[in-house]
Design goal:
The chain is an alpha+beta fold and 147 residues long. It has five helices and six strands. The structure holds zinc ion (3 copies).
Length: 147
Amino acid sequence: VASTDQRLTSILDLVRARGGRITTPRRAIITALLAADNEHVTAEQLADTVQQAHPDVHRSTVYRTLDALSEMGVIGHVHLGHSPAVYHFTDEYTDQPHHHMVCQDCGRVVELPLSVLTSLQASISRDYGFDLDATHFALTGRCSDCR
Ligand SMILES: [Zn+2]
Ligand SMILES: [Zn+2]
Ligand SMILES: [Zn+2]
């Protein structure tokens, strides 16, 4: 498992490789998302964390920067339920891309490797001609504790 510093370095390299400059807001957001340690955090929570370290970075800049990093495919958001979207790293170099299951009783989030749904996606594609993207919304149900 890579250390936080190593991950920060590889994520910044990825931003550069995709034609992006390393600005203070970009570095601050990536650092805040790393500090969340694979918890899924909202744009509001990220803006709070960034502003603690960089009071001069305006919230609107944080939201714009989230969009820019999303367009580069470095981060992404997912809708876990009725609450605001949450952010995570999406690139295979920085994190394992995954699906999400959220427990509708306790709110626990369980990550699933993409491969778990591969055969379902293949049969949906074959039978319905529909290209399923299950990464943007969480699957819902009850976790092992709540069921
Ligand atoms: Zn969305
Ligand atoms: Zn995630
Ligand atoms: Zn639960």
